[in-house]
């Protein structure tokens, strides 16, 4: 009887880590499938007829939807990473869009996301940084202050 209890406890601790690894793998595979479908669409646009292009666009749309759902499932199963926490800036919240010009106080090094890979954000380019603005994440060109990309409600 004691062996069954120990095995049950072991299984209870191992199963959640295996489930999260599977969801991360699913998200990675769906992103790879999306890239393959986009490559097929480019090939169809270059060498195919209208029907081929239409089918390839439908496949890209389906792959994009699947990748989005897998990403949402991954975030839902890893809420501890994306929780908002008690984070407040010394300025009021503003909803920023791509192309907006920020003052340096909004994107100084204090607000940089040090490890964007932890949140599965793409690597920023030269002179670009991921910046946290309340629960939003902004990709900002630090030389000009322009917002390149805005993800609203990124943190819970």
From TrEMBL:
UniProt name for this protein: RcnB family protein
Extent of Basic and acidic residues compositional bias: 26-64
Domain of life: Bacteria
Residues making up the signal peptide according to the UniProt record: 1-21
Keywords tagged on the record: Signal
Cross-referenced InterPro entries: RcnB
Species assigned in the record: Sphingobium rhizovicinum
Family matches, as Pfam families: RcnB
Region (Disordered): 25-64
